[in-house]
């Protein structure tokens, strides 16, 4: 017993050590994909050289999904799984009718009926009458359920069965909802790209300093609320996310468009930074390593015409 317990403790200790070592290698940031991209919030941004794979979908957003936008598809069921394509049970498939008939016939053959007091010819006639009544009611009930399907069949003499939905479906089905207006394409200038790179650096540094005012000036109220929530959780834990030495390595614009008087641009950006979690009192590193690490993300920026760009969404590159 003692040796078994010692083995269990050894395995548990090894698992904890491996988990702590993996946590120390990971970046301090929680990551995630959040924010809004206007009408394209739930549409995947095009792949780029910087982010050749599809970005993680937005997980948290105040933008409501439109009825006809990015609708989830359910796996198609096989033909036999469609309740409309399954055969209705026949008269003798009904367990109640089958039980009564078999019970009555067996009683007649053995010379006794449903009970010990029902015997002879009178008991047999009563059993047969009861079975006939029950069978007739069951047959009418099942026939009434089959009647709508038979009335919709294209050919009563055909042996093949077709669902009524196959007959009533129009040749050119119309979409349930009108297509979502994704806006008009927008040209991005060199000055816009410089603004995107500057915002990447300034927002990261402001987050590391816990400078709420600087974050508010450079982000939408939605992004501000998410970042403020994370900063508050860090403060509750007694830690601070220190981000420094942000260096842009590569970037390109995935798409840019306008919606009314709003202009959007989604840029894929690969950058390096020192990203660690430190104790608020001692300044000691509690998560991450004090070394440059690379990160690839998609940042979406928004502005009203003539106003500065602001960060409106951040997505992890898958």
Automatic annotation (TrEMBL):
> What top-level branch of life does the organism fall under?
Bacteria
Q: Where are stretches of biased composition, namely Low complexity?
A: 36-57, 168-178
- What InterPro entries does the record point to? NTF2-like_dom_sf (IPR032710), Tim44-like_dom (IPR007379)
Keywords assigned: Membrane, Signal, Transmembrane, Transmembrane helix
Query: Which stretches does the entry tag as region Disordered?
Result: 29-87, 152-178
> How far does the signal peptide extend, from start to end residue?
1-23
Q: Residue ranges of the Tim44-like domain?
A: 173-316
Q: Where are the transmembrane segments?
A: 114-139
**Pfam hit, one:** Tim44
* PANTHER family named among the record's database cross-references: BLL5807 PROTEIN (PTHR41542)
**UniProt protein name:** Lipid-binding transport protein (Tim44 family)
Species name: Phenylobacterium koreense
Q: List the lineage, top down.
A: Bacteria, Pseudomonadati, Pseudomonadota, Alphaproteobacteria, Caulobacterales
